[in-house]
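User: Could you write out the 3D structure of this protein bound to coenzyme A? I've included everything you need below.
Assistant: Certainly. Input first, then the structure.
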Amino acid sequence: MRIYSRIAGTGSHLPEKILTNADMEKLVDTDDQWIQERTGIKQRHVAGDGETSSTLGLAAAQKALEAAGITAKDIDLIVVGTTTPDLVFPSTACLIQKGLGCSGITAMDVNAACSGSIYALSVADKFIQSGQHKKALVIGTETLTRMVDWTDRTTCVLFGDGASAMVLEASDEPGVMSTHLHADGAHDHLLNATVGVSSGLKNEPNGGLKIRMKGNEVFKMAVTTLGRIVKETLVANKLKKTDIDWLIPHQANLRIITATAKKLSMNMDQVIVTVDKHGNTSAASVGLALDEAIRSGKVARGDVLLLEAFGGGFTWGSALIKY
Ligand code: COA
């Protein structure tokens, strides 16, 4: 009999510090109206002193374990989606594992930028399907504001920090019905971080590390690519658009989310939107939206969820889940 994975519990954690659009107006030549009209963002959370991707991820993981009614001793796999690890090594997954006190189990990071949530979910799902692992913590955690160029108005208004987590457990029934992962490295010039360990840090503040994005070109690519992947997901599962109860999209831009909902002929009241409160939290964003939707009582057991994301790489992916 086929082994599936199902979501047993979710959690999330956001830093206390909030930067509103009014705060951004004091930093760069921008205004609340432009940010809201072009992106849908009203505010973003920013990690404070002592907060890192692993501390945020640990807090989210503890809430997901609590929601699943289990402890860290019950899990046998940790997969963390992050582009902003505390350190090059140990991995953020290992740091979170240390915080949870569950030595010995498998722990790894996955770097797929804003698609990190879907990539991490897919990896954990396949490990569980293999029969080798029974209970996994899937975490998306980011501190993107640590690599934002606060003088660049075209990017600094977009990003925020946060973490999300879910417990996936082996089950006789889905659960995760399918995941779909893609990447195309040919567009690296449109969205990237300027420096790295191997290519060399610069003798500048933060080692010269900044996010650079040709927003308009990324936007067009995101809209067409996400349109394609939602179709691919429906076809793979032999489902109609009307079979989807909730769209839980990556939260980069409200206009991208609306365009994807339109492709699915979905009303916006079937779409979970958190971009207004969180900004783009990269690998954390889909999980943050899912956790909020579950805790607010919108998403109920048995609902069919379509998760999707697009990000740097480019990478993109989707997951179809019976919650
Ligand atoms: N405040 C005010 N004006 C701004 C601004 C800001 N924060 N940022 C850019 N502008 C200006 C530009 O300078 C430009 O001015 P110009 O016409 O005088 O040159 C104008 O607004 C339009 O810029 P453009 O980049 O074409 O805007 P846009 O409508 O494409 O919106 C983004 C910009 C970044 C919001 C949008 O392109 C986007 O969301 N891109 C995709 C992001 C994404 O999904 N990333 C993938 C995952 S990380």
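The chain has a mean pLDDT of 97.
User: Perfect, thank you.
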